[in-house]
Amino acid sequence: MMFEAVYAKIGPAGLVIAVLSFVSLYLFLSGLIYLAVVPVGFRRFVAALKKKSPTVTEEDAAKNPIAHVLLTALAHRTARSELQGEVAYLFQRNLSGTTVSLTILRLISVISPLLGLLGTVLGITRVFREMSLQAAVDNAALAGGIWEALITTIMGLTVAIPTLVFYYLLRLRTRSLMIGTIEAARELMIGQDEN
């Protein structure tokens, strides 16, 4: 019964926006936790590689996607001039879940205001249809109907703005990890060249 009352206020577009808000929050929190945990293992992996006699195996690297990126770049003996492109490609391949989450967050930030606008247009259409069926127009009913129609625009913007912030925060964190991987690979390559 409560769901029906809320649905009557926000309509189908508002319902989709509400679901997207939960998806956005979930993707952001899971991505944030993942991108906070993964670098810990990566730093340990890099420290083990920098030792004179590293006891690091491919199985160790397989446990951490960023470590796997680093080991693959080192195994390919990528030229330093091509290292950035190689690491970017390997990041896309090994951190595909994060890449998909970023894409979905960006999509939500773009479609939420459009869904809000759709809800507003549908609501105003409904108000005008009801007005056409009445002999005398009630200004209070008209104002209330338009107010209800504008709720979805507010909802769309309320979801889009934080989702865009979530997207850029995760994207910056991913780029930071990518730069750290490139720097670690260059350091280790210099160490290999000296040996």
Automatic annotation (TrEMBL):
It is found in: Cell membrane; Membrane. One of its GO terms (cellular component) is plasma membrane. It is a multi-pass membrane protein. Signal peptide: none annotated. Residues 63-177 form the MotA/TolQ/ExbB proton channel domain. InterPro entries: ExbB/TolQ_transport, MotA_ExbB_proton_chnl. Keywords: Cell membrane, Membrane, Protein transport, Transmembrane, Transmembrane helix, Transport. It comes from the Bacteria. The chain crosses the membrane at residues 12-42, 103-125, 145-170. GO terms for biological process: protein import. Its main location: membrane. Belongs to the exbB/tolQ family. This is MotA/TolQ/ExbB proton channel family protein. It comes from Tichowtungia aerotolerans. The lineage of its organism: Bacteria, Pseudomonadati, Kiritimatiellota, Tichowtungiia, Tichowtungiales.
